[in-house]
Amino acid sequence: MTMECPACRSVTPAGGGEASARTVDAGAIGSSRRESPPITLATCPSCGLGWQVHPPGAEALDAAYASLRDETYVAEGDNRRRTFERGQRLVRRYAPPPSVDLLDVGCSAGLFLEVAMAAGWNAWGIEPSTWLSERAKAQVGDRVVTAKFDDAAVAGRQFDVVTMWDVLEHVPDPGGFLGTARRALRPGGVLALNVPARDTWVASLLGGKWPLILPEHLFYFSRPSLTQWLTRAGFDVLGFHAHVVEFSLAYILHRLGQHGWPLAGAVQGPAVLSRVRIPLLMGEVTVVARSRRE
User: Fold this and answer.
1) pTM for this structure?
2) From CA 104, how far away is CA 202, in angstroms rounded?
3) What are the backbone dihedrals phi and psi of residue 123, each rounded to the nearest 5 degrees, phi first?
4) 46, 73, 271, 273 - which has most CB atoms within 10 Å?
5) pLDDT tens digit string along 220-273?
6) How far apart (Å, rounded) are the C-alpha atoms in residues 4 and 51?
7) pLDDT of residue 252
């Protein structure tokens, strides 16, 4: 039995069998869950893409993200802002503000919007989770729309920059999602996104213990697979960059504990761990691309 790679379309052994839908609820996704259930991945020997063999169904995912609550994500707000500061500085190298319209897709609690607006961007956001989008609206007002990212949600408006931080790995159809981003951009506009990447030394070193192997991550990209999808969607890749995140030690131990790392759960208690900040390479890349002018 074989299956076609979703990115490069080469045919590869199916491994775990044909993909089939399974039910997922909001308690099984997000930073706040207590453990991470195992998943089965297929990998493409040609482009390096990894993907879930038995992904959740699209309707179940939509419902899960719409009802998602993530207290743990919000509690790391200050550290996430520092991560977003790095992202903002990277994007401005390609499309510097001011007077630049920016759309942050999957804006969560609006932390990147806060950073972008403070730096001079005319920034807007879209977020499917009602709970998270309400927190974003409390910070930046009606610049946030509670909705899925599709042509109807964008409603014909175009932007100079579209960002997707920790988003593309969650969607069942990355190619279609990038196509929507292309239509949301003005000709020559800039797209910036980060994803878990299998062709990083972190992913190679940790193997099955890679903390980014999560039930809500449907795809595990590589530079070649990203390039394939972006090119087909009408983008020219401008550059790949290592994605550095910053978290508290308490958060890091919490996430490792979800994956059953030895002793991670046993040492999460002391409050002092929340005050220890650590910059990390988690095996993600940021790619910046430009929409081709027609």
Assistant:
1) 0.92
2) 27
3) -105, 145
4) 73
5) 999 999 999 999 999 999 999 999 999 988 887 777 777 776 655 555 555 666
6) 11
7) 79
Q: Which two tokens stand for residue 181?
A: 């981003």
In whole angstroms, give the CA distance from residue 188 to residue 151: 19
Tokens linked to 148: 């899925």
Peptide bond into 98 cis (omega under 30): yes
Pairing of strands 50-52, 41-43: antiparallel
Strand (E) or helix (H) holding 32: none
B/e letters for 36-71, b = 16+ CB within 10 Å, e = fewer, are beebebbbbebbbbbbbbebbeeeebebbbbebebe
Burial level of 156, CB count in 10 A (0-12/13-18/19+)? exposed
User: What pLDDT does residue 70 have?
Assistant: 92
Question: Phi then psi for 242, rounded to 5 degrees?
Answer: -65, 135
User: What is the residue range of 30's domain?
Assistant: 2-291
Instruction: Answer for the pair 255, 31: CB distance below 8 angstroms, yes or no.
Output: yes
Q: How many structural domains are present in the chain?
A: 1
Query: pLDDT tens digits for 171-214?
Result: 999 999 999 999 999 999 999 999 999 999 999 999 988 989 98
With CA atoms as reference, report the closest residue to 53 among 3, 23, 19, 14.
19
**Structure-token match 């042509």, residue found:** 151
Give the DSSP letter of residue 65.
Answer: H
Which 3-state string (H, E, C) describes 115-148? HHHHCCCEEEEEECCHHHHHHHHHHHHHHEEECC
